[in-house]
Amino acid sequence: MAKLNKKNRVIIASVLVAISFILKEIQGYAPVTIVFMLATTLVAGIPIFKNAFEALKYKIVGIDALVTIAVTGALFIGEYWEAAAVTFLFMLGDYLESRTIEKTRSSIKALLDLAPDTARVIRDGEEVLVDPEDVLEGEVVLVKPGEKISVDGMVVEGNAYINQAAITGESLPVNRAQDESVFSGTIVESGYLKVRADRVGDDTTFARILEMVEEAQDKKAKTQKFLEKFSRYYTPGIIVLATLLYLVTRDLVLSLTLLVIACPGALVISTPVSIVAGIGNGAKHGVLVKGGEIMEKLGKIKVLAFDKTGTLTLGKPMVTEVLPFGIEKNELLRIAAIAESYSEHPLGRAIINHAKDNIGKIEGNLEDAQIITGQGIKATIEGEEYFVGNRRLLVDNGYILDKYESILQDEEDKGQTAILIGLNMNVLGIIAIADIVREDAKNLIKNIKSLGIDKVVMLTGDNERAAKAISKELGIDEWYSELLPEDKVKAVISLQEKYGATAMVGDGVNDAPALASAELGIAIGGAGKDVAMETADVVLMSEEIKRLSHAIGLSRATVRNMKQNIYFAIGVAALLLIGVLVKTVNLSFGMLVHELSVLLVIINAVRLLGYGDKGLSRKKVMN
Amino acid sequence: MKKTYQLDTLTCPSCTMKLEGMLKKTEGVLEYEVFFNTSKIKLEYDENIVDSETIKNKIAKLGFEVLKEK
């Protein structure tokens, strides 16, 4: 027989089954009717029978086998119509299911389409179009507006707005200029860039995300593993049961019907389709959930423990207030910036950056400087000796700070670090510096609590006052301060014992041990941070911490979807069983209901793909 | 020799069981993994014992088409 593709086979069988049905209604079981019915059974059934036998060779009794036995039995007792209808429905169901299942996997396909297909490399001074895989590390790639960046690398020339949705899920374009890094798979919307290739082909962040998402979709959920094991014994079990039923009742039709309705199709597919759709949705929104089991765990998390620096805060200190006393504000900044130009301290960098932002180029030279560890700097500028540092530095050098005590106390209570500038026993000013809380952190804490997280905890190496100030500001329930990395591990373990399933959220840099010891490790800003991306269970690609609420909401929705599917599948099977036993369900009707239930389960999972879209668009309107 | 086959959509988890059963019994196949959701087979085989064509034929016999191989 000529090889038919699936689609043609479905069409031919549909025509044959329609003719059979009409003939049956007009003439009843005339020879010509039976011929058409047998033809239908053959066209629709041959692949099923073949699959069943091939599988038997490897000692696997699948759904194909159940259908084959049922159809053979039906033909044997002269139920030609039943045989034709059952094979046709099974084939049609399978075809429709494969089309719908494709949908649940479509977000991955969408990601694949984002892969760059050509690269414009500059070789010997000329532009050459090559396959992105063939770009060599260190070569310079030119990217024009509308084109995809084909490598991970550093901008060496140009300035552009880039859409990084493929990596971070963020649809607002970001600006990138010289010495900033860009990712493969992102699109230059305006401007142009020359990028030095640091990583190409399979080594790029984009390629690795794709691979991880693919692998994640096939890491089975616990429920799924259980269901698979179950069906391995279930299907042969049904054959035994049907045989017993026949031996007891001598009712062949009843036994055959049992075979058909007992197909565990909807049940075994219930979990994987939900998980795939859930993981696909996450990937689209910049949330990488590494597998079904992780998705289930995330859906059951009760406590979220946050690292502070770099997670709830931006991780880089910034000047929040400048208080000059009898001196120009800009002059105070200038002096402080010149003094700090000698130090490598992050607080010093914050002052220099702030000064540059406010007064532009900093004029003046540092004539002499001495760092006093843990206190600050003694700096000679334009012949004068300034002290720039903390309270201790000034007190140790004979300054009296009584007048400023209340200001200092106040700043410290707010979690700020105060830098004093002193000259000739006079305090010239105070500069307050703090690690700024992420804009979206406060909303996030509120959102995750409304999603059913019991406790939000903060773990930090910072001092108690700063920890308290930030916790109060964000609405955090508990905080633990002055922790070393190993203390964070202990804190996570004790939280798990006290409150149950705990997820640790961090930037994956200095909190890697805590991420690993928690029930679930969630890393933020994963794109570009290899270690964080490899070790964490859930990775938020961008720095936007608000996506965490999408991740948690999505996981809960996925678990719910999975449960709906399982209960529905079991419910339908139970109803069918009752129907068969009281003889209101016959072979073909049983098959119809079974196939419909499989389709419904898949369609239910497809709904998950749209999770969060509505909420997002509503927010956009509000802004 | 390592290969990845992209199959047409796998619709039932029992399909993966069939493929796994077949690969387990195929001589020369050293390691294999069947991915249901991505409809992929990743495998490693000894090219002195078995070749890609033979494996693909066996896959086809079970009713699956190999769309791409890498």
Which fold name corresponds to the CATH topology of the domain at 285-307 and 439-553 in chain A?
Answer: Rossmann fold
Write the CATH architecture name of the domain at 285-307 and 439-553 in chain A. Answer: 3-Layer(aba) Sandwich
CATH class of the domain at 285-307 and 439-553 in chain A: Alpha Beta
The major pleated sheet of chain B works out as: 4 strands, antiparallel
Mean pLDDT of chain B: 85
Compute the number of strand runs of chain B: 4
User: What structural category characterises the helix and strand content of chain B?
Assistant: alpha+beta
Could you name the CATH homologous superfamily of the domain at 285-307 and 439-553 in chain A?
Answer: HAD superfamily/HAD-like
Total tally of structural domains of chain B: 1
* Low-pLDDT stretches of chain B: none
List the helices and strands and how they pair.
The complex is a heterodimer of chains A (623) and B (70).
Chain A: H1 6-27, H2 31-57, H3 63-76, H4 80-104, H5 106-113, E1 119-123, E2 126-130, E3 140-143, E4 152-163, H6 165-168, E5 174-177, E6 181-182, E7 187-199, H7 205-218, H8 222-249, H9 252-261, H10 265-284, E8 287-289, H11 292-299, E9 303-307, H12 308-312, E10 313-324, H13 329-340, H14 346-359, E11 366-372, E12 376-381, E13 384-389, H15 391-396, H16 405-413, E14 417-423, E15 426-437, H17 441-450, E16 455-459, H18 464-474, E17 478-480, H19 485-499, E18 502-506, H20 512-517, E19 520-524, H21 530-535, E20 538-540, H22 547-581, H23 587-607, H24 613-622
Parallel strand pairs in A: 9-16, 9-18, 16-17, 18-19, 19-20
Antiparallel strand pairs in A: 1-2, 1-3, 3-7, 4-5, 4-6, 4-7, 8-20, 10-15, 11-12, 12-13, 13-14, 14-15
Helix pairs in contact in A: 1-2, 1-4, 2-3, 2-4, 3-4, 3-9, 4-23, 5-10, 7-10, 8-9, 8-10, 9-22, 9-23, 10-22, 10-23, 11-22, 13-14, 17-22, 22-23
Chain B: E1 2-7, H1 13-25, E2 29-35, E3 40-45, H2 52-61, E4 66-69
Antiparallel strand pairs in B: 1-3, 1-4, 2-3
